[in-house]
Design goal:
With 137 residues, the protein is an alpha+beta fold. It is 39% helix and 36% strand. The protein has a 5-stranded mixed sheet. A hairpin with a 4-residue loop joins strand 2 and strand 3. The longest helix has 24 residues. It is globular, with a radius of gyration of 16 Å.
Length: 137
């Protein structure tokens, strides 16, 4: 899971070298332009045999340097999202002066029992982290 996020961050840094790239929620002091990658939800469900279905929802938040860039940034952000998640359903919306790209993906993984347990632990750790961040506000 962490390796996948690192690959996504590397791809974003390559595609948007002028922007600060973050993978954590930032509360104050946002430097612009900035792209924030957040894994909002993830689940792993057993299918059959060694087949598992991994579902993930990512948000890319684009904080432009000025308001005019919100509109011009939509196309490059969508193209980047489709390159990163080629089989995902991708939607874009505007939240004030922020552009939000949401990508929902599902993939079938062939995992051993040990690999599935390891991935489940990683997902549980992420969910506990999200709950703690939500509690802090």
């Amino acid at each position: 899971m962490n390796r996948k996020i690192e690959q996504i961050l590397a791809s974003l840094k390559e595609r948007f070298p002028e922007a600060v790239i973050a993978a954590e929620r930032t509360m104050t002091g946002v430097k612009v332009p900035m792209i924030q990658l957040l894994l909002e939800a993830a689940s792993l469900r057993h299918e059959m045999g060694s087949r598992w279905r991994l579902s993930e929802t990512y948000h890319l938040r684009w904080y432009p340097a000025d308001e005019k860039e919100v509109l011009t940034g939509a196309e490059p952000m969508l193209l980047a999202a489709k390159e990163i998640w080629p089989r995902a359903e991708v939607n874009v919306s505007r939240d004030g002066n922020t552009l939000v790209v949401e990508a929902e993906s599902e993939e079938i993984c062939f995992l051993t029992g040990e690999e599935a347990e390891k991935m489940k632990r990683e997902l549980l750790t992420l969910q506990l982290k999200w709950q703690e961040e939500a509690r802090k506000g």
